[in-house]
Amino acid sequence: MVLAELGSSLANALTKINRASKIDEKTLQILISDIEQALLSADVSTKLVERLKANIREKLRLSELPAGVDVKRVIEKVEITNLLDSKRKAYIPKRGKTNVIMFVGLQGSGKTTTCTKLGYYYRVRGWKVGLVCCDTFRAGAFDQLEQNATKARINFYGDRNEVDPVKIALEGVKRFKEKKFEIIIVDTSGRHKQEESLFEEMEMISHAVVCLVYPLHQKKKKPNDTILVVDSTNGQQLEAQAEAFRKRVDVASVIITKLDGHAKGGGALSAVAVTQAPIIFIGVGEHINELQKFDTQRFVNRILGRGDIATIVEELKEHKLDDQKELMEKIQKGIFTLRMMRDQFQNILKIGSFSSIMQMIPGLNNLPKESEDASQQRLQNFLVLMDSMTAEELDGDIALIETSPSRQRRICRGAGVHVNFIFELIMVYKPFAGFAKNMKNMPFAKNGEMPKN
Ligand code: GDP
């Protein structure tokens, strides 16, 4: 995945610290320079890298460090988590109210696709969603959004004959508001580059929508949420783009798209730092369900190669597959057997979108993103392996298989796969089991959310 390379160079740099017998000025200097190299080659802007270096220096004044300070943790927090965290809190739509969400971004960033993905995200969770197409600039935007909306079964408003995007915004938001739609997504025009006309149009739409939604509240000057969509493949230019948008509209949140591709991704991180707006979702594919809610700590876990089991479990829970309650209860007791993993992998097969889920599995997440078919095949190999295990192996300790080459050979022969696959399966299983052990005695949030791993 994008940023995986950055993650593994940062993880390598941090591992060096573990190996060092003592942390002196020289070790720290080498570490900072390794981190600098990793960030710069991932396209993180030089300005941001300088700032982060100064932060690390500030936090790690060796002469003042109390004994026992975990330097690795401090750096992880300062360097990586700060890259992604913003001071501002994300807007949370309110049920039963009109929530107007305006999308802004350059042409090609994935704005239109993401509008539908976000609409779909809320629609499947039971919200009443409407999409308004105000992109009168790009030929084909109307048809694209209309088709996407139909596929996603979301209500759509647009006017093929109207050239004034402000009029369309006014009419669309008015109609949806009258019908008590809760989430109204307004897709604005993009341009190839930041141009004055684009920003003027954005400001006018924003103002018009506000006058309509809050006629009596003159103080309000912006939609509930203004989301800037940034394309992670745009590299170093993204920082300047984000800065230009931030100056003209109140960018309240960011969605980074195309994180499934081969881009380095650091430019998107620099854009986020400039806007100081939280990343709320990431786009990880072209399909409508390839939008993932963003959580900084989980993402850091993922790029540092620790996988993101909490998101996998939540994803399975959201799809309301039958046995999730039992799964949660067992995980809370620290139990996670191969049989449970087999059941969950079968569920993943039902959900589809294997490749993005595979990217969250520890041990597999540093592999380049595979095609859907290749991921499905890998998952199926795991399933046939587990199908050729005895009940004792499925429910017992993994050591039973791990320490017995004859069992390993028997299982692989039965499954008709190369013996290497059993090692891959064990490598995938162990972090899951470790995750469950850590969950033991950890309170789950009242709303049933997983704690962060
Ligand atoms: P807009 O001009 O900003 O509205 O961009 P579009 O929504 O038309 O998207 C441009 C291209 O990017 C399309 O081919 C989309 O399918 C693609 N796209 C959008 N989001 C993602 C994503 O998260 N991953 C990938 N791989 N492609 C994406």
General description of the model:
The chain is α/β, with parallel strands linked by helices and 453 residues long. It has 3 domains: 4-84, Up-down Bundle (Four Helix Bundle (Hemerythrin (Met), subunit A)), CATH 1.20.120.140; 99-301, 3-Layer(aba) Sandwich (Rossmann fold), CATH 3.40.50; 306-439, 434 Repressor (Amino-terminal Domain) (Orthogonal Bundle), CATH 1.10.260.30. It contains 20 helices and 8 strands. The chain has an 8-stranded mixed β-sheet with strand order 3-2-4-1-5-6-7-8, with helices on both faces. α1 runs antiparallel to α2. It starts with a helix and ends in a 14-residue tail after the last helix. Bound molecules: guanosine-5'-diphosphate (GDP).
Number of strands: 8
CATH level 3 topology of the largest domain: Rossmann fold
Whole-number radius of gyration? 24 Å
Kindly report the average pLDDT value: 79
The CATH class assignment of the largest domain is: Alpha Beta
Percent of residues in β-strands: 5-15%
Helical content (DSSP H or I, runs of 4+): 40-55%
Structural domains: how many: 3
Enumerate the distinct ligands: guanosine-5'-diphosphate
CATH architecture of the largest domain: 3-Layer(aba) Sandwich
Largest sheet: 8 strands, mixed
Regions with pLDDT < 50 over 5+ consecutive residues?
444-453
**Outline type:** globular
Q: In whole angstroms, how far apart are the ends?
A: 20 Å
User: What is the CATH H-level superfamily of the largest domain?
Assistant: P-loop containing nucleotide triphosphate hydrolases
Helix-strand sequence: HHHHEHEHEHEHEHEHEEHHHHHHHHHH
GO molecular function, one term: GTP binding
Keywords: GTP-binding, Hydrolase, Nucleotide-binding, Ribonucleoprotein, RNA-binding, Signal recognition particle
Family: Belongs to the GTP-binding SRP family. SRP54 subfamily.
Catalytic activity: GTP + H2O = GDP + phosphate + H(+)
